[in-house]
Amino acid sequence: MALPKVFIISYSTYGHIHTVSQSIKEGLEKTGLVDIEHYQFPETLPDEVLGKMHAAPKPNIPVITVDKLTEADGFLFGFPTRFGAAPAQVKALFDATGSLWAKGALYGKPAGIFFSTGSQHGGQETTAFSFLPNLAHHGMIYVPTGFRNQNLFDNSEVVGGSPWGTGTVAGGDGSRQPNEKELSVAVTQGEEFAKVVARLSA
């Protein structure tokens, strides 16, 4: 019997979310419970603007399409914050899913979220919270991470993330990279999410 399929769908401007997504994928793979496909959100900005932003090169993974979404049994969405919410690139894809909504094509499918902010107080939890209406309108099941990883209790240094999902703090200039504790949370999120998808698909 085929394993349930999880899509990791990420948008990464400076590479932080892409790095986290690799640890998310590692956690999913460790369980052996799901098949994994990794996609990126379509870019909406022209190359000229991305160049002025000093954006990182796009990762070598396929771009997701609206029709492709129906093939997944579960989703892990990753993106940086824009003023405490998902960036326009993410919103643009979901704004195009009206036909899927009308058919209930994503109803009952589990979804988790991971995120990046420029600072500790840059809106990690609001980025996840403000994305929930997209899931609710499709009838998708939000799967938070909870406190399954002990690094979320660590106050000895900056550690992104929360019970809402894995997070990393990029720094105002993007120079801070995801640390081992944040990536450990990402692995845990992948592992726990795979277990939920497997139970729901059984």
Automatic annotation (TrEMBL):
Short name of one Pfam family: FMN_red
SUPFAM superfamilies: Flavoproteins
Signal peptide coordinates: none
Domain Flavodoxin-like positions: 6-193
UniProt name for this protein: Protoplast secreted protein 2
Organism encoding this protein: Linderina pennispora
GO CC term, one of those recorded: membrane
GO molecular function, one term: FMN binding
Domain of life: Eukaryota
UniProt family annotation: Belongs to the WrbA family.
